[in-house]
Amino acid sequence: MPEATTAAPARRRRPFFLRRGPMEALAVAIIGAGFLMLFQPFLLVLYTYSFVTLLAGTVLFMIVSKFPE
Known about the structure:
The structure is a single chain. The chain has three helices and no strands. It is rod-shaped, with a radius of gyration of 20 Å. It has helices at residues 20-39, 44-48, 50-64. The two termini are 39 Å apart. It is mainly α. Helix content is 58%, strand content 0%.
């Protein structure tokens, strides 16, 4: 007697900006850029925006970490 197989419905992939893994990597990259901007001795404008960049990366990471896996 053949077994009845039911095909599971195909799961739709989320868009790139709603996936947890890539967005966490982006947030970590922004935080890293903020640290590099903070500790470089060449351009004052980079130092000026380093805190804002760190803050934006941290807020992004906190938001993205709530996304489902």
